[in-house]
Specification:
alpha/beta; eight-stranded parallel barrel; 8 helices; 42% helix
């Protein structure tokens, strides 16, 4: 696994200054967001010269863009809002080859018209599922056109609020361009924390072979997506990381949900956990049969 971080953790006036702040921490990759160059998260238009400048800034510092954030409400109750989101998603997808990345991250959305991270009873309706499938079908057309992968993230407040629904989505869409962003802090509905290992095990059983990016943050309670720094909450990180390793996942493990001041501590926490995990694995391989 390659440790990385959300670029939005570092607030600086230019992309070069952001990456200069990231570099001393020794991370290998970042999840990019256009807000760090003064644009909306989902720009309507991106100048080629800006894309070249961003790519050069990454290359000069030896950093890899693991993904670019393309989050919008894929089941917004207003079809016009969904249309605008899809048009902007196409612009992002078209920018990926020039940026040197091949992954766009998405959420599956909510019927709440104001807050993309707030649940809604309508999320469980057949109409919401149909809208998601229609939005994704068009988005996957962009993915094919520009050679990118779309990563969707199961999250308790969105229409895909469980590993089972994520598996259903993958099976129905049947596209090699659609993969999973795994975040262990986003999977627990109200009352489910006592079943943490069971729910994590199910998530990896159903989705492990389709994970393209993993996220590292934490949670203090169930019923909402976690928003704490890794190691600051109740997520069983030993088990979470062991499950990632057991799937053969070697991709980006991206920190978010933290402040810049928390970065050193969170990286130390993850590095220690990952070092211990490698040690356990090595001892296991050396055991007598």
């Amino acid at each position: 696994m390659r440790l990385g971080i959300f670029v939005k953790v570092f607030l600086r006036p230019t992309v070069e200054a952001v990456l200069d702040a990231v570099a001393p921490h020794g991370v290998q990759c970042l999840q990019f967001n256009f807000s760090c160059v003064g644009l909306p998260n989902m720009p309507e238009h991106i100048e080629p010269a800006l894309l070249d400048r961003i790519r050069q800034a990454f290359d000069e510092r030896g950093l890899k863009m693991a993904a670019v954030s393309g989050t919008f409400n894929m089941i917004h109750p207003d079809p016009g809002e969904r249309r605008q989101g899809l048009l902007r998603l196409r612009e992002l997808a078209s920018a990926c080859p020039r940026l040197g990345t091949s992954v766009v991250t998405l959420c599956t959305g909510t019927r709440d018209p104001e807050n993309i991270w707030r649940g809604h009873p309508g999320n469980n309706s057949p109409a919401a599922w149909n809208d998601l499938c229609h939005s994704l079908a068009e988005a996957l057309g962009f993915a094919e056109e520009f050679g990118v992968t779309l990563g969707v993230e199961p999250e308790v407040s969105n229409v895909v609020d469980s590993a089972r629904k994520a598996r259903r989505l993958l099976d129905e869409m049947r596209s090699s361009r659609l993969k999973i962003i795994m975040d262990g802090a986003n999977l627990f509905h109200t009352g489910e924390l006592p079943r943490m290992r069971e729910i994590l095990n199910e998530a990896f059983d159903l989705l492990g072979r389709d994970i393209v990016i993993a996220h590292a943050k934490d949670l203090s309670h169930d019923g909402e997506a976690g928003n704490l720094a890794a190691g600051a909450g109740v997520l069983d990180y030993d088990h979470y990381l062991a499950l990632l390793q057991s799937t053969g996942f070697g991709g980006p493990l991206i920190l978010h949900g933290l402040s810049e001041s928390q970065v050193p501590g969170c990286l130390a926490f993850l590095r220690e956990k990952m070092k211990a995990l490698v040690g356990v694995h090595s001892r296991g391989q050396g055991d007598e049969p």
